[in-house]
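Okay, is this right?
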Amino acid sequence: MTIGLVSGTVAAAHKDETLRGVTLLVVQELDLLLSPTGIGLIAADCVGAGRGDLVMLTKGTAALHTEQTAGRPIDAAVVAIVDKIEID
């Protein structure tokens, strides 16, 4: 899993039927010090995240293991809104 910052949403009038009802978020991946890695991606929202939220992402096959993403062409999913990160 990785940490990211939601910077926006994606709207698509024409998309695969299985994506209907799925909110797609633009997410900038961050390192554990919360610095941008330069990697941006589109992720399915499974938790009601919004612009400015710090989120936890899962990618690849693991992104298909939620109720909202099962059976859909998803390779990244937002699975948590992060409240706090503590690093010693």
Summary: The chain has one domain: 2-10+22-81.
